[in-house]
User: Fold this.
Amino acid sequence: MTRVLVVDDEPQIVRALAINLRARGYEVCTARDGGEALQVAAARLPDVVILDLGLPRLDGIDVIGGLRGWTNMPILVLSGRSDSMHKVDALDAGADDYVTKPFGMDELMARLRAMLRRNTGAESTPAVEFGDVRVDLAATRVTVNGEEVRLTPTEWRLLEALVRHPGKLRSQRQLLTEVWGPGYETAQGNLRLYMAQLRRKLEVDPARPRFFLTDPGLGYRFQP
Amino acid sequence: MTRVLVVDDEPQIVRALAINLRARGYEVCTARDGGEALQVAAARLPDVVILDLGLPRLDGIDVIGGLRGWTNMPILVLSGRSDSMHKVDALDAGADDYVTKPFGMDELMARLRAMLRRNTGAESTPAVEFGDVRVDLAATRVTVNGEEVRLTPTEWRLLEALVRHPGKLRSQRQLLTEVWGPGYETAQGNLRLYMAQLRRKLEVDPARPRFFLTDPGLGYRFQP
DNA sequence: GAAGACTGTCAGGATCCCGTCAGGATGGAC
DNA sequence: GTCCATCCTGACGGGATCCTGACAGTCTTC
Assistant:
């Protein structure tokens, strides 16, 4: 889950942000001043920071500097000042975006999504693991016991269609249209063929599959 | 030098931006409408795009979509509309920042710096090494056993497209749009040709490549 | 117990894909 | 104009991939 650190000294703003963020599925942690912000950031390692510039004690610019000394997590600055000098200072100090109060919640959330989208491009690849098999969906790569296994395009599409819905039954019709495209709903012999191929390459005992199960008369199921 | 693509149909804004950008050491190229923007972006491969939303003919949102189909270069949107709906739409379509007109030049430049900083900072791989080959992405330079190897522009773009995603499969479609620009998705003979050229120049045994692997039916992969 | 439906397996040929080569087109340097 | 590098198109052979059809085994149903 994506974790957001909200730094502001006004409780009502913190509460409003937290409610909206949680409603959208983010995990929220908070800090009331600059010192606490640096502490919480180091302890909880949020994916993004929303930082009010008008903080007591420690100046907002210094908080940015304190964060940038050891991390490049995205920082979105909130501020009541709309003069460009403050914006330039904050951005050049290392902030990634600058929103002036009062702000629209929709816009703030959209800017947050934009920042996160840019950052997750380099994140670790999502992978599905079961038994000795590891399926790296982002890299389009399959390994068994660390050794790479070569899959043909059709085998890969079928594997993807199964693995993307763990535990769920996928009907023959669904699999056929997903792998071979619409119009191939009757080529069930094909499905059996490639299913066997997948099991031969990925199952320990292809005759008695543990992960790629058959629901007779219905379809197949990936059981991790 | 950092290259900026400015897209706007109002000449005075283009000129003002170009003057300010050049004064700060950027290289500037321009486009007057959406179609030209996509064309220039593919041909010149700018480091960042400044895009006016109020374009004739092709809608700004569609331009964002057209760019995001094959590149993730930063996009800064300019717009006369300040209502949050347009901001949200543009940001969710793939824009990285949204500035409403009239804008302060200082602020715009600061936002530009912030975007560029993020992009070059996350990169952190100015050079890639594998076997006897060293690819210097920053300097556009390739050496094998210390000796410089000359690459043509197309060869270089292909190498870059592969090397920037180590281990990941890159589909033929991805490579074609990234190297030749959108609209060249069917020129697969080309891809094979330049792939062979790259292997001939960089692989020890071009017939049995170790780093530039092919996944039949899917695409190619750089394996360091 | 028999019939039918369903699944897993095997083999064979058609098709597609990849690497390679040659040749023409384009554009810039001199 | 000539030379040169680069880019693109088309064609060919070898190999991998895909599809079709047939057969045996298993389970359900009558």
About this structure: Residues 74 and 119 of chain A are 8 Å apart (CA to CA). The two ends of chain A are 21 Å apart (CA to CA).
